[in-house]
Specification:
three-stranded antiparallel β-sheet; mainly alpha; DNA polymerase, domain 1
Length: about 350
């Protein structure tokens, strides 16, 4: 009987054509889930609109040509006139879907069209909107508007944690009771995942004691933790809703079901409500993060320390949008010319 030479290990055991670019349903689901939840929602919306437009115009969305993407961008500009940042996000969405399956799309024509649109948009009065950076004095005013009771204590803990951690609202919403640890110097708050921590390695935000009891995040959060313990809550969501009878969500007596974890949108509503009560306009949950970074920069804190506290990537340009205005005022050359 003749010897049969085994097939090389790189050949498939069975013959037949295999689409080397195709993902299995399970792999496709994992790839999609690799994006952060907020990113995934925005990507899903943008991608659905892009693929629908491609179907209506008999164009291929994946892989898309540079002309297809440019034509779609011009369609968005002419029909919806969105902010340039929205168009930039759409281009990024299409590119990300291509990269996820090892493909590429030429975005140069689309970005040139976007550059032209930016000029027209700016000339027409368009301006990039940015959440107001909350000052310490404004924060104090909002703290006085929180009122008494468990809701007021929770809201004060929310405001001071958000400011001291330079936290994103999604980070605040995700906090659990056991993520907060009281140490000799203050608090250590574990952030399990965040926008810049795509692999969910986790980070610890350290919060020292404040000078004044009213604005001390450590004393306030400790008081809130004690209130949670008294209500029988020792685990689960840290920031949770309270019913009209003052009962914490997730406890046996509370109205409603579930843990009652406050969402990022809910946190934003709390911050906006308190700001409006003291007459502040344009304040959102992001104002806590922007305000603390700006205040630290005004106090001369080095950029690297601010970026570390706020969990910005070292090379991030976003943190500079808060630091540079503070530096521009503190080190303004007109302060020295004797006007």
């Amino acid at each position: 009987m003749p010897d049969i030479e085994p097939a090389p290990p790189y050949l498939p055991a069975e013959t037949g054509e295999v689409d080397q670019d195709a993902l299995t349903p399970a792999a496709a689901e994992r790839v999609a889930d690799g994006w952060a939840p907020n990113t995934r929602r925005a990507f899903a919306h943008d991608w659905e609109n892009f693929t629908s437009w491609c179907a209506a115009h008999h164009r291929r969305p994946l892989p898309a040509t540079g002309a297809t993407l440019a034509n779609y961008v011009v369609h968005l500009i002419e029909v919806e006139a969105p902010a340039p940042a929205t168009v930039e996000r759409v281009i990024g969405t299409v590119q990300a879907h291509h990269r996820a399956v090892d493909l590429a799309v030429n975005a140069t024509p689309a970005r040139l069209a976007l550059r032209s649109y930016r000029r027209d948009w700016a000339a027409g009065g368009g301006r990039v909107k940015q959440a107001a950076a909350l000052t310490v004095d404004q924060l104090r005013a909002m703290l006085t508007a929180t009122g008494d009771g468990l809701v007021g204590l929770r809201d004060r803990a929310l405001l001071l944690l958000g400011f001291a951690m330079m936290a994103r609202r999604s980070e605040l919403a995700a906090l659990n009771v056991d993520d907060v640890r009281v140490v000799d110097d203050g608090l250590e708050v574990f952030v399990a995942t965040s926008k810049t921590d795509k692999d969910s390695v986790g980070a610890v935000a350290r919060i020292p004691y404040g000078t004044l009891a009213q604005t001390c995040p450590v004393r306030t959060v400790c008081a809130y933790l004690n209130a949670l313990t008294e209500a029988g809550v020792t685990e689960g969501p840290l920031l949770r809703s309270v019913d009209r009878h003052g009962r914490l969500a997730g406890t046996a007596e509370a109205a409603g079901r579930g843990t009652g974890r406050i969402s990022g949108a809910g946190i934003n509503l709390v911050v906006k409500r308190l700001a409006e009560e003291v007459g502040l306009d344009g304040v959102t949950a992001h104002s806590l993060r922007a305000g603390s970074a700006t205040a630290a920069a005004m106090a001369g804190v080095p950029r690297a320390q601010i970026a570390h506290q706020g969990r910005w990537e070292p090379q991030s340009t976003a943190v500079d949008s808060y630091i540079r205005p503070a530096d521009a005022w503190r080190d303004n050359p007109m302060r020295r010319v004797g006007l």
